[in-house]
């Protein structure tokens, strides 16, 4: 990958400038030892070189090695956004985000690798920025190279990165129009895949707005302010509003073929293109059908 800058500022070490642009120390070492190059005003320099106003800096990174463990799986992707740095796809329910031991190589990561090969992408390494549970649908972000990945990682759990979900939950009691769930989440001692509200857990914050509700169900727009495993499912179960179809956190499974949860909206700063991205994925047919059966007026 090739990156260029026109430097304007006080005298500064080249390495410090590149770290400001998002390069980690490990990435700078790769530039030195694995075939990358750094040029200032068309002359090759090392990271200790001092740069000044007016200098033109060019970085050519070493080719990224794609992991052999991720086998390409050709499959149609629902692409919601794509540029040189990021790929955002609408994941269907029932598909894993990444490969797992003992399972088929048909995860979203496998599909994206096949897509990168098909489109002759400069890097065919798969960088998963955001994940979703197998039975959660919606928007997933992949980076196309390591710098794009590390830059977006800095935003993930900040106010700059907005991630919103639509969930359909049971509603034995009315939900307020706007609410917060602030409960720490930890790992269950008896079942490592299950998460629980625990005083020894990590701080976890979920915000929601009620989109529609009846005496039996509610549709909510959920904004995550922390990124714990199963956070939405655990938090709503903890306040007595379990997600439809969530047989892991419901004592009495609620009829639906998967947890009724969809990542519907992402907004983040594209750090290399210097612009905001606002991406939406419509409600999938199964959740739209559930909302209709429950008489919750939602648009698909």
UniProtKB/TrEMBL annotation:
Its EC number is 5.4.99.-. One of its GO terms (biological process) is enzyme-directed rRNA pseudouridine synthesis. Pfam families: PseudoU_synth_2 (PF00849). One of its GO terms (molecular function) is pseudouridine synthase activity. Keywords: Isomerase. It comes from the Bacteria. Residues 85-238 form the Pseudouridine synthase RsuA/RluA-like domain. The active site is at 133. It catalyses: a uridine in RNA = a pseudouridine in RNA. Responsible for synthesis of pseudouridine from uracil. Belongs to the pseudouridine synthase RluA family. This is Pseudouridine synthase. It comes from Lacticaseibacillus zeae DSM 20178 = KCTC 3804.
